[in-house]
Amino acid sequence: MIDSVLNLLFRCAHRRLTRPVTPVSKAGVPHGGTYVVCLDCGKQFSYDLKAMRIGKAIDHSHDASVVPPGLPVPRKARLKYALWAAVPLAFVAGALAKPRRRAEPSPEDKPPAGPGKRNS
Fold it and tell me: Where in the chain are the domains?
């Protein structure tokens, strides 16, 4: 329900697509239809090679997919995202931990000097 509402509001335009892919067996015989994949949302679409047109969306399957679903994210990528998220937090923490300087009093705010003492 929520997914369909979000798709209505923020739908992917499917402008960035892979080249047409036709799964081939080890013997070189095609098995399955030709498809393209949207690089932004990962949705797969059937592809007509004769008309060179994108067809309807197809279900993800292990047999006909570029990247299998549920593939774990490499550890380096997670670490990189964590470091990028930590940089702004470090700046904020440093700004809050830094002691604030008091404004030096102006010469008018200083008490008057007594006899024999100078204002400096």
Answer: 2-58
